[in-house]
Amino acid sequence: MPASRRTSSTDGPPQPRQLPGSACEECRKRKLRCDRQRPQCGTCADAGIVCEVNHNRLARGPKKGDLKALRSRIVALERRLSLDPSNLDALSIHGDADLSQQHALPAGSTPPPPPPPGPASSDGDLSQLPSPRGGRGSIWDGDYRAHNNGQLSPMTPQIPLSMQNFKFPPSPPTPPKRPLIHDLMRADLDQLYFDRVHPNVPIFNQSRYFALSHHHHHHHTSAPSPRLCLQYAMWTLAMALSSQFESYRDTLYTETKQMLESLDMCENTHPSHESPVCIEEIQAWLLLAFYEFSRTNYKRGWVTAGRAFRLVQLARLHEIDSPERAMLQQGEDPVVVEERRRTFWVAYCLDRFISLKNQWPLTLMEEVICTHLPSPELSFQSGQPIQMCFLSEAMASGDHLHGLFSPLAESVVLATVCGRTLSHTQVANVERTYNGSTMSADSWIRHEWLAAMVNKRLDSLVQSYPVVSAAADPMLFFAFMLAHTTTINLCKVVEAGGGHSQGSNGQWDPAVFEYQKRALRAAREIATLTKAHEHLGYFKAHIFLPVSISLAASRLISQRTQVLADLAAQVPEGFLATTDTEFDKEIQSCMDALGKMQTFNNLAREHLHALEIVQQQQQQQHQPQHQQAQTPLMGHVPSQSHSYGHTASHSLSVSHQHQHIPQIQLCTY
Length: 669
Prior knowledge:
Main location: nucleus
Distance between the termini: 101 Å
Low-confidence stretches: 1-9, 91-109, 117-148, 150-156, 174-178, 500-506, 628-669
GO molecular function: DNA binding; DNA-binding transcription factor activity, RNA polymerase II-specific; zinc ion binding
Largest sheet: none
Subcellular location: Nucleus
Keywords: DNA-binding, Metal-binding, Nucleus, Transcription, Transcription regulation
Order of helices and strands: HHHHHHHHHHHHHHHHHHHHHHHHHH
């Protein structure tokens, strides 16, 4: 029986459940209901312990009147804001001081008269502040006293004396901002940039960069400068091609972009009147675009690259060597002028590379260019750049100039051919929209000229730079890739024009068939170069190398699908067609290369994911055919030796018969 009921009686009025008084410490500790019997409660009596009661326990909760005062203050503030919302700024600045003066008065009492007009005293008197409703007076005068005949509103809160003199403790001083990049990391990132980034983005003269970097480091200011933004962009891109700075990469990228954004908001302090924008700012945006293509996403990189292209046009870098600009640049350091040329040509190539993926229109047009091609790398780094020819001259010249071109100049020429191919593709699409699915005579003329130009440049590359030496120069290596990529794109233009279908006599078009052979040969060359690229190291690879590899892999997968379909059509019912082709190893080498590059290149990750989806779809299409072919074989049940021998002889006959099909002859190239 509980202790609380042992005192209950059946006679007389009902007894309360517990006696008045405080609960003992043991019941509080065990969270039990104490019957408050003295000198010992029932719980302590059952446990055989001493019953102790603390009569000096402090009351719980806030002090009396504090909660009511806080509620009243909230109501007063809400009412004041509802009467005049435009006074929010004044309230946030002066509201606390004004409230403390008003609440010092008891509720319902008459406030003292306002002081005579005059300048506000220095002790914080708020009586002369402008009223929100016009005129002079205290902030509260127009809200409450006007409606209460000079009396305070009954809702005026009362602040306890203990809270009126309360002051917040002073905030600790802000620690000085630590430099994000210390000296040792700065030297390491500079070396990393020129080892891995500069071969693919050859903009800077190393001697000049290190001299300016040393000078800027000793004269550093807190405000962001174009030179500092450029250094941060260089280090950000260098971190993207390294694993040791992975933890700093995102922070430095965010800091770099914020600095560039703040630089755009400032006044133009560039001392030169030739250009309204600093060349360092253009270079920083270009490097940041390369970073975003490799590490963030394609959309963000596209927008940043477009911003850099507009700055290039604003600085008129496309006409550096025009007669008017040449007169203004007399006496200027030739290395500085060459850096401007290289900045333009890097932006020009980037415009073609990013449009290659989705066949988008170009921004920097070649028809208005009046800038010499970049000088050879050795002469540029030695401080004595050689003046080269214009792009139009290089496109129309023979092979006597090609041996003098630098890898960047070779990439510029091939990027130009690639850009013309993109424009040709877009024009052909418009013509098919208006004139039907066939290509016009003008389109065929442009197409043949572009194909001849690609073959000419590729032959010149092979003669001037052997393939073995291309592995030592990533940009030259990518130039070979770009030539083969353009060949595949030319074949896609012909196939999109309806040339892949048979003619009226049932034969394949020889011209289209020739372009398909070239495209397949180019795809297999890309696969071979990709396999050899493993020894070069993927950190030195061009950022847009996955675009060429993916295009070649797609072509090989398409050719493999056609071969398997043709083989399956000629295999008798009941026999399984082979699923192994000569393209499997080449496709796998492309997939392996993209898989290794996807850890530091988002373009490789996107293209690898697209290729995996295509392969899964093809496997699902071939799986029902294999299941149907296995059914007759189970009914026939031939002997094991007879089955293997018959299948082998049949495969040979099928391959011999299949040599007469034009599509299968592509496999020999």
